[in-house]
Amino acid sequence: MSIVRRTRKGDFEVRLPDGERALLAALVGQLRSVLDAGESGEADPNLRRLFPVAYADDPRRDAGYHELVHDELLARRRSALDLMAQTIGEERVDEDALLSWMGVVNDLRLVLGTRLDVSEETELAADPDDPQAGPLAVYAYLGHLLESIIEALADG
Asked: If you write DSSP's letter for every residue of 14-49 in order, what string do you get?
């Protein structure tokens, strides 16, 4: 059974147990804190995939690019975080909310994947004694949730 499905009314049913909703709410809060810390000059290197280098061979052009787009990207991310936080307890959401969820879940995966140094070769089913087993399980869960959101949005 899919986590997210489109209803006949055109909105989306989100089937998440309370524990998963609480986990997502906590992750939303953590991502907001990391983004806010970056705004105050304490940029987290794990955010590099959210604000990638545009001109690797030209630092001056890259700085100009970031000057043009960084604030807008940050504002969009914060808006999506706000909407997900507002709707995290809802059993049904509209398409705008689900699109925000998709963006936030993707951003969470990017940041967590960067922290964990996830690559194509990373085994997500880690040994339970591995200290990264929990974060890897969250990363895998976010991937499953993202896939469910994308499928629901495509089912139109």
From this structure: E---HHHHHHHHHHHHHHHHHHHHHHTT---GGGTT
Over residues 121-137, the pLDDT tens digits come to 776 666 777 788 889 89
Residue 102 to residues 47, 54, 137, 140, 148, Cα–Cα distance (Å): 17, 23, 19, 15, 10
Rounded Cα distance, 147 and 155, in Å: 12
Mean pLDDT of all residues in the chain? 90
Q: Give the containing element (helix H, strand E) for 12.
A: strand 12-14
What pLDDT is recorded for position 42?
Answer: 60
| Boundaries of every domain in the chain | 4-154
